[in-house]
Amino acid sequence: MEKNLEFDNLALTIQATGCRPIEGGYIASAPRLTVRLPAAPVRYLYAGWQSWSLTTWLETARPLRPMRPYSAHPIHTDPAYSRETRPHGSWYGAVEFPDGGILFVGALGLESHVMLDGRSLTGWYETGKDPDWFIAAGDEEKIFARYAGLLGERFGRGRATQPERVWCSWYSLYTEINEDRLNKILGDLADLPFDVFQIDDGWQRGIGDWEPNRKFPSGMDGMAARIQATGRKAGLWLAPLLAVPSSGIYRQRRDWLLHDEKGRLVPAGVNWGEPLFALDTTHPAVLEWLDALMKKVRLWGYDYIKLDFLYAGALPGKHYADIPREAAYRNGLAVIREALGDAYFLTCGAPILPSLGLCDALRVGPDVAGFFASPRDDLLLADFSLPGVRNALRTTMHRLWLQPLLHPDPDVVYFRSILNNLTAEQASLLQDMAEICNFKATSDIPAWLTPSEMEALRRYLSDRPPVRQTGRTSFQIGERQVDFSSCAALPSHPGAFTRLQGELLGWLADFPVSKNENL
Ligand code: 9PG
Do 39 and 85 meet the contact criterion of CB atoms below 8 Å apart? Predict the structure, then answer.
């Protein structure tokens, strides 16, 4: 049925089964919604699927190229739509007209996607249940505040009130952690005001084998006790929805893994030198195992839990129970949330809407790194979900609207000059973004900091200046004006020769994966 929508400066006709006005817009009902646009938009708001996926406004005249290598798609974006070259995104999308006006279409349910095709904005659900959309036009900040409110009513909000100030092992030691190194840092942190000491990747026997390896002879309970003895909460990283071929799960519980309609394992990307596979979060034995794993980690003494690579739970495939993929993920996440009790729960590599209401914090951008941007990743691979400060800031700044629903985690900040190529300005943009998010974390090792860097870090952790958004990319922090527009746009498309080099690099990077017998 055709429905007419009236906004301040815009009248639209849509195709929908139902449509009612609400405060700030309309709620329309349609498994497939088509909005005929009155003018050709100049910009489109790409909404990435999971934490690391690109989210930003882009000129419609500069569409994205599919990222390379293809084997990275499941780890960086929604593989169901990763080769689409028209402007599109997960759950919601928006267009900007030449006069600066915005039109927004956002799903209120899961397994939904929005795409721009010429003068048509289309939204669809992969499944037919409760196909509701919020449609609004006008002031961007108000639209997103309303959308967040509606999502909060349907999915709930995080329950932690206090954000944590976190020391995280990843961005200094990576997997090179061991008991002695961490104990030394724990001592050296002295009276720095960190609430949490979080152990990242590197403690476990394997991806799927969540027991301490030989580098942690006192066990993870011993490590947690030592952290707690310093007056901080103990934090731990796990990637509980993944299994690699060298893991016990892969060898002994192959039926727990997600398969496709033809019975083949669904690829979940490549990392740690192995192909990744996903646990099926609708399988009763998997849910039981996840429940026990979370309870074990809690009993070890960890009260801050970072669960990573969670997208694996929402990949397309044939699940044990016949439920849609994001609902399947949510099913698993609900069991995890319940088992974690009152622990602070941070999700990472996680699909955005399906995580709402079931976690306290969500990583809202790619990993940071001690560099600003990588020409190889930008120009050859066209992958903006890879590590780097510019990629992290770009996506994070477009997801701040989630703040009423959870703590957005922008990843760590740097105060060190050792092993860090950021300019002072780039490092302070990162610090400012974490101030805006009110989520302050670092991996800086005290022994790496000069006395003045140490003092700057201490002040940063203790201060809480007032923050106010003043534009799409600009903020007032205390007395200062901060603008992130230099990070918002993408570098312009490379020329034909560079693109050809990109094709070659992508092909080479895919080669060992396509030859892997596990895929
Ligand atoms: C630990 C890290 C840190 C970090 C997470 C996540 O595409 N990839 O292969 C890929 C690897 C690592 C990664 C993201 C993507 O980082 O965001 O904070 O916990 O895992 O391995």
Answer: no
- 130-159 per-position pLDDT tens digit: 799 999 999 999 999 999 999 999 999 999
Within 10 Å of residue 226's Cβ, how many Cβ atoms?
A: 18
Rounded to the nearest angstrom, the distance between the alpha carbon of 367 and the centre of ligand 1 is 7
Q: Measured between alpha carbons, how far is 263 from 165 in angstroms, rounded to an integer?
A: 45
The CB of 170 under 6 Å from ligand 1? The reply is yes
Report the C-alpha gap between 494 and 133 in whole angstroms.
37
pLDDT tens-place string over residues 253-274? 999 999 999 999 999 999 999 9
Q: Looking at ligand 1, which residue's alpha carbon is closest to its atom 4?
A: 367
Q: Is 125 in the pocket of ligand 1 (CB under 6 A)?
A: no
Cβ of residue 303 lying under 6 Å from some atom of ligand 1: no
Q: pLDDT tens digits, residue range 213-231?
A: 999 999 999 999 999 999 9
CB 311 within 8 A of CB 49: yes
Residue 31's pLDDT is 94
What are the structure tokens assigned to 395, written together? 């996506």
Is the CB–ligand 1 distance for residue 272 below 6 Å?
Answer: no
Q: Is the minimum distance from the CB of 201 to ligand 1 under 6 angstroms?
A: yes
Enclosing H/E stretch for 238: strand 233-238
Cα angle 349-129-154, degrees, rounded to a multiple of 5:
60
What is the CA(431)–ligand 1 centre distance, in A? 20
Whether residue 377 has its Cβ less than 6 Å from ligand 1 = no
Give the residue, 489 or 97, on which the prediction is more confident. 97
Answer yes or no: is the C-beta of 177 below 6 A from any ligand 1 atom: no
State the pTM of this model: 0.97
Whether residue 414 contacts residue 371, with contact meaning beta carbons closer than 8 Å, is answered with no
Task: Say how far apart CA 103 and CA 519 lie, in whole Å.
Answer: 41
Tell me the per-residue pLDDT of 351-394, one tens digit each, with 9 for 90 and over: 999 999 999 999 999 999 999 999 999 999 999 999 999 999 99
CA 270 to centroid of ligand 1, rounded, Å: 11
The alpha carbon of 151 is separated from its chain's Cα centroid by a whole number of angstroms, namely 17
Under 8 Å between Cβ of 227 and 169? no
> Closest Cα to residue 134, out of 164, 92, 167, 176?
92
- 237 touches ligand 1 (CB under 6 Å): yes
What 3-state class would DSSP assign to 467? strand
Residue closest via CA to ligand 1's atom 13 equals 367
Helices (H) and strands (E) in the chain, counts: 15, 29
CA 165 → CA 287, 386, 409, distances in Å?
A: 31, 25, 11
- Distance CA(182)–CA(202), nearest Å, equals 12
For the stretch 410-423, pLDDT in tens is 999 999 999 999 99
Ligand 1 atom with the smallest distance to the CA of 270 is 9
Enter the tokens of residue 302: 């960890």
What's the CA gap between 406 and 394, in Å, rounded?
19
Sign of CA dihedral 513, 514, 518, 519: positive
| Residue that has been written with the tokens 């001690």 in this structure | 370
